[in-house]
Design brief:
alpha/beta, inorganic pyrophosphatase (n-terminal core), 6-stranded mixed beta sheet, 12 strands, about 40% helix, binds guanosine-5'-monophosphate, binds manganese (II) ion, Bifunctional oligoribonuclease/PAP phosphatase NrnA, Oligoribo/pAp-PDE_c-di-AMP_PDE, hydrolase, DHH_sf
Length: about 350
């Protein structure tokens, strides 16, 4: 974050403000962890802050300190709209353009607040007056830690803040596995443990909360897996009917796409998940090495993200979408098999 923006932020926060903190739609561990960590900090400094999420978030994140006070734009619409329109400052965390908040986009576009972006996705748009965007960062949570350092607030990291930040780093790095995990990430994680992050408990609250039906859904997903050895590519499909059969609840398919990458030689793994209510297929793309799924998702599936993890969507049927997907692979054969 450059000095000019750090100073602008310090000035902005020098007096108590009315603040809204916004994660992206279908918030994950990094989005909820970063917004709650910032919320705890701002509240502690005497600001009137509130996290407003576009929609609900998975059960395995509900234990997080402060999670119960998050406003849900879908369910608590009047209160959420009021907070956004009356906020003096709006922080947007873990996303790079306003379209990523779904039905909340228009309210944010109409808001008169000063916008502050903290994000690690590629190609950020320029709606924010104060920007901290760095695609090399493991997670927005790691950035929130840096941000607190820039505000000279490292000593104000409470155990609540530490637990929130730890969670987002854990989930966005695939448990410290992805390439974006640096020695700095590990140094921050060490400090977080010293400040009260309960690493073992967090890991088990995130990853050891399977219901039998979720494991059965995973079984169904793995059975549906298609392996295209010629392109070192694999994909999974899950229809709405299959989701219904296994009592799908939000967050149940989190991480399924990564199973594809555990196959030897596979470089590109994809999951297509039907959402009948929205009339779309939600798609997750993952890669290892240089194959750029951000570019792929952006170009062919109205999405984006990072080099090795991105998302997108399709309005066509499952059969049409997977046929289209397969038809794209020959042009990437070299990149996928070199
Ligand atoms: P996931 O596949 O876990 O939903 O998302 C992987 C990464 O891509 C995340 O960093 C997420 O924020 C980003 N992402 C997911 N869906 C979209 C999308 O539709 N558009 C953009 N720009 N990014 C996305
Ligand atoms: Mn993130």
């Amino acid at each position: 974050m450059n000095l000019e923006h750090i100073n602008a932020l310090k000035t902005l926060l020098s007096l108590p403000k009315k603040i809204a903190i916004i994660p992206h739609k279908n918030p994950d561990g990094d989005a909820i962890g970063s917004t709650l960590a910032l919320w705890h900090y701002l509240k502690g400094k005497g600001h009137n802050a509130m996290v407003v999420a576009p929609n609900d978030f998975p059960k395995f994140l509900k234990w997080m300190p402060g999670a119960e006070s998050i406003l849900n734009f879908e369910k608590e619409n009047t209160q959420a709209m009021d907070r956004i329109s009356s906020a003096e400052v709006i922080f947007t965390l873990d996303f790079n353009h306003l379209g990523r908040v779904g039905q909340m986009t228009a309210s944010l576009e109409a808001a008169e607040a000063t916008f502050v972006m903290v994000d690690h996705h590629q190609e950020p748009s320029d709606y924010a007056q104060i920007m901290y965007s760095d695609v090399r960062m493991s997670s927005t949570c790691e950035m929130v830690y840096h941000l607190l350092t820039y505000l000279n607030a490292e000593d104000e990291v409470t155990s609540e803040i530490a637990n929130c930040i730890y969670t987002g780093i854990l989930t966005d790095t695939g448990s410290f596995k992805f390439k974006s995990t640096t020695s700095t990430t590990h140094r921050i994680v060490a400090k977080l443990i010293d400040k009260g992050a309960d690493n073992t408990a967090i890991h088990s609250r995130i990853y050891d909360t399977n219901s039998p039906s979720r494991l059965h859904l995973l079984g169904c997903a793995l059975k549906n897996m298609v392996i295209l050895s010629e392109y070192n590519t694999t994909y999974i499909t899950l229809s709405q009917e299959e989701l219904d059969q296994y009592n799908f609840s939000k967050g149940d398919t989190e991480g399924f796409v990564n199973y594809g990458l555990t196959l030897e030689h596979i470089r590109f793994a994809v999951i297509f998940i039907e959402n009948r209510e929205e009339g779309i297929l939600k798609i997750s793309f993952r890669s290892v090495g240089d194959f750029d799924v951000n570019h792929f998702a952006r170009k062919f599936f109205e999405g984006g993200g990072h080099t090795n993890a991105a998302g997108g969507k399709s309005d066509a049927s499952m059969a049409e979408t997977t046929r289209y997907f397969e038809s794209l692979l020959p042009q990437f054969k070299k990149a996928l098999t070199l």
